Amino acid sequence: MWPNGSAPGPCFRPTNITLEERQLIASPWFAASFCLVGLASNLLALSVLAGARQGGSHARSSFLTFLCGLVLTDFVGLLVTGAIVVAQHAVLFDWRAVDPGCRLCQFMGVVMVFFGLCPLWLGAAMASERYLGITRPFSRPAAASRRRAWATVGLVWTSALALGLLPLLGVGRYTVQYPGSWCFLTLGAQPGDVAFGLLFSLLGGLSVGLSFLLNTISVATLCHVYHGQEAAQQRPRDCEVEMMAQLTGIMVVATICWMPLLVFIAQTVLRSPPAMSPTGQLSRATEQRLLIYLRVATWNQILDPWVYILFRRAVIRRLHPRLGARPRSLSLQPQLTQRPTVQ
């Protein structure tokens, strides 16, 4: 409950918006089209992944498992959040009347945090897997890579869910956000709101930074192997280039989509004087920026599957035919003289 009791329920903040304004901002057709495009993109990526996994090698098994977990997470995230937002935009229901106990709002808040952090953490896990596979190819058995990858995906899901449940345990709050169609963490000045906002933004930002660092090292290592003195004997397989191209694309998409929102959350909860008044009100400019950054972040769920679809070897070879050509000297080398390639 807010200090002055001006809004019923713990998830309702005072907002000054008319029904006409909500109708202009909350377009059910745009929201439905956005969700359908995202769901179709992820379904297409899952079908392509299914074919790749059937013919995949041990070297790619863990990477494809992480990709499957990422695409599946994006698909379910769009399905759950899209169903709530599209229904709200279509009916324009009064959240106070429909959800006076704030259970739907709390559920959506948990879902938003969970499906927001999972792609970032999975991207960092994929970057770590590729870093070890390229720089330390003999440090792990290939037979257990797929089981270990699924265990890592499960750990990411569990950790993100545990973080999303913190406001239900008293650390931070989920509140209805402008224009009244979605719920998210509160950008308030209370210690719990500040702690949860910083935790969300820092963990997301650190995962993006870790992905950038490890991917940079992996790409530099691949370039060194390609152009080194023994390149003919050590030339990486095409799948190594394919995986790093996909992983780099995923990292770039995540950075562009999520970093504006993560930085904005950290800046807002640390602002002095506080951005939120004691009664729970935010300035219209702050609310509008939060909505814009959130919409940019949701593009990550649509673009992720297309990174995998477009950055496959068949597409890369069309754009850069030299990547599909193998030097004749490599095929003439005896098998025993070739050093093992990276996993």
Task: Describe what this molecule looks like in 3D.
Helices cover 69% and strands 2% of the residues. It has 343 residues and is mainly alpha-helical. The chain has a two-stranded antiparallel ribbon.
Question: Which helices and strands, and how do they pair?
Answer:
Elements: H1 19-25, H2 28-54, H3 58-91, H4 95-98, H5 103-135, H6 145-164, E1 174-177, E2 182-185, H7 191-227, H8 231-234, H9 238-269, H10 284-310, H11 313-319, H12 328-332
In short:
The protein has 343 residues and is mainly α.
Q: What is the count of helical runs?
A: 12
Output mean pLDDT: 81
Class by helix and strand content? mainly alpha
Head-to-tail CA distance between termini:
54 Å
- What proportion strand? under 5%
Helix content: 55-70%
> In one word, what is the shape?
globular
The major β-sheet equals: 2 strands, antiparallel
The total of beta strands comes to 2
Uncertain parts: 229-235, 326-343
Strand order of the largest sheet: 1-2
Order of helices and strands: HHHHHHEEHHHHHH
Report the C-alpha radius of gyration, rounded.
Answer: 23 Å
Structural features:
343 residues; mainly alpha; two-stranded antiparallel ribbon; 2 strands; disordered C terminus
